Amino acid sequence: MIRAALAQLQLAFMLLTRLPAGHLSDPAPRINAAAWAFPVAGLVVGLGAALVFWVAAALGLPLALAALLGLGAQIMLCGALHEDGLADLADGLWGGHTPARRLEIMRDSRIGSYGVLALILSLALRWQALVYLGALDLTVAIQAIVLMAMLSRVAPVALLALLPPARADGLGHSATSVSWRAVGFASVIALAPLVLMRDMTALAVGMVLVVQIALVLGLARLALRRLGGQTGDVLGAGQQLAEVTGYLALCIALMG
């Protein structure tokens, strides 16, 4: 049991980050079995980003630069995997007229105008949200980085439970049959750090959860209607959009 859980955790890090995670021994766990561990990978990514943000701020750099460095560290730790999914999904959803054509566009390594705009908006919104939160309270901003990194990685798990695969191959197909029990377990893990986050109010966290749940349900409906289900790009985009909307909801909730 413990060995299987460690292998699943290792697979989660291999899938979601660029951190050295070694090699899996045979038989390797299936992606659906490792879905519960996605927020754990998010915890490590969030801690790394928060550390860079805190050090930059402690060295006296302007808050805007510290926030941008923190986000840059987060992107590097993940190899821009989720950003790539967001860009591909944006290009596919609005660049094709049929599900087959949209899926074809999403597999194209080139990026289009929709993808570029999606990346700009994602980075800009997260950056400005962090600047705003840091201006309110640096500790709150640091906690937000970790919390959003974890909560946003529940979104791909929920999308896997909600949607069938849109393709007969690829990451989305290999990660089918994720149970709602895994979604619940991932959610509990993502919310566990709140025990130590005294600055996060129940109202703020509740607003974040409501907005992220609505986002996941809306994205699932859109992906089903326009693509026929989920792909790896849909999962990556789900993480990005959940993180962006989570930051925005937190900013609204904490407005003085």
Tell me what the structure shows.
Helix 4 (63-78) crosses helix 7 (113-136) and helix 5 (81-95) packs across helix 7 (113-136). The protein has helices spanning 2-16, 31-34, 38-58, 63-78, 81-95, 99-107, 113-136, 138-151, 154-162, 170-174, 180-191, 202-226, 232-253. The chain is globular and about 50 Å long. It contains 13 helices and no strands. It is an all-alpha fold. The mean pLDDT is 93. It starts with a helix and ends with a helix.
Key attributes of the depicted protein:
256 residues; 13 helices; globular; mainly alpha
Radius of gyration: 18 Å
Distance between the terminal alpha carbons, to the nearest Å? Answer: 48 Å
| Estimated structural class | mainly alpha
**pLDDT < 50 runs, ≥5 residues:** none
Number of strands: 0
Query: What composes the largest sheet?
Result: none
Q: Give the helix tally.
A: 13
Mean pLDDT score? 93
Oligomer kind: single chain
How are helices and strands ordered from N to C?
HHHHHHHHHHHHH
Strand fraction band?
A: under 5%
Helix content range: over 70%
Cα shape: globular
